[in-house]
Design brief:
globular; two-stranded antiparallel sheet; disordered N terminus; mainly alpha
Length: about 180
């Protein structure tokens, strides 16, 4: 096999091909896989514990997956340059970092659990904003559900997610209050 040459005349022994899945770069594909894993882990944690439990495997997967996803998103941009999605990523990193601090440094303080639960749930909610936008403007391939971020289906879906976030936050607050009353965290 004859090695490939680049325009400058340099010979490459291996050719690395760009995989084109829904217009995603390799970083975008990695970001998506880790992000979906984090979302699934959060959902599993919500089902099992009623919250994202950082002491459980699912909570740890959510934490690390969310950090990785948020950091990799800083290298992604359809429009080029810094955008609102990057701001969400930075906010999400701060939210999960503070929640982790509360979890690890203040384990005996029941009041900290309210903030920890809220911060993790809010980070989960914020993660859905770019996720829904990106998914709905790409899927199904060739005929996406939405033509742009301003499409009504995106707005309606985000409203549903927001209502679920509010209901979930109220549920978590009540559950945490019961757990604090019996001495559990």
């Amino acid at each position: 096999m004859i090695p490939d040459k680049c325009p400058s005349g340099t010979i490459y022994l291996f050719q690395i091909k760009q995989i084109d899945i829904m217009g995603l770069s390799n970083l975008g594909i990695f970001h998506t896989i880790i992000g979906v894993t984090a979302i699934v882990a959060a959902i599993v944690s919500y089902i099992r514990y009623g919250k994202i439990a950082l002491s459980a495997l699912s909570g740890k997967i959510y934490f690390y997956g969310t950090i990785i996803t948020s950091l990799t998103s800083l290298g992604l941009s359809k429009a080029g340059g810094f955008n609102p999605g990057h701001v969400f990523s930075i906010i999400i990193i701060i939210l999960v970092a503070v929640a982790y601090f509360l979890h690890s440094k203040k384990p005996g303080q029941n009041r900290s659990r309210y903030f920890e639960n809220f911060l993790l749930s809010f980070s989960f909610f914020l993660s859905w904003l770019p996720t829904i936008n990106e998914t709905f403007t790409r899927v199904p391939i060739g005929h996406p559900l939405a033509k742009s971020p301003g499409d009504p289906i995106i707005g309606k879906t985000l409203l549903i997610i927001f209502i679920l976030f509010i209901a979930g936050t109220v549920y978590q607050f009540r559950k945490q209050k019961r757990m604090n009353a019996i001495g559990m965290s």
